[in-house]
Design a protein that fits this description.
71% helix, Methane Monooxygenase Hydroxylase, Chain G, domain 1, 2 strands
Length: 112
């Protein structure tokens, strides 16, 4: 990642206590060329790593549960399903249904 090292040397600022400040070009003002180079480097380094594929697949299964839990955690004043007798089971079933659909799609595409 020589391009990143060169950019740090060029635009990085050393603050008192040997703190290197790089947020001016990595966080606030996105340099699209730099981000593209970093993306290519990551792709090159992790393209054949099996663990990366596993983490990607596992993270996709947690996405529906996280989304549904975040919706129910918003504390709206009126959410009728919170008072519904089967609301919990409905949400749990919805999570399982979506996760099952994702699993089926992955098997259909032969990714698993």
């Amino acid at each position: 990642m020589n391009f990143l090292e060169e950019r740090i040397v060029k635009d990085g600022i050393v603050k008192p206590g040997n703190v290197l400040k790089v947020d001016s070009f990595l966080n606030h003002q996105m340099d699209t060329q730099l981000m593209e180079e970093i993306g290519r480097e990551f792709k090159r380094r992790f393209a054949e790593k099996e663990i990366t594929k596993i983490f990607t697949i596992v993270s996709v299964f947690f996405l529906p549960a996280t989304l549904i839990a975040s919706l129910y955690g918003m504390n709206f004043k009126y959410m009728p399903e919170l008072e519904w007798r089967y609301g919990y089971w409905f949400a749990l079933g919805l999570i399982l249904l979506i996760s099952g659909a994702i699993l089926s799609y992955f098997k259909y595409k032969k990714w698993l």
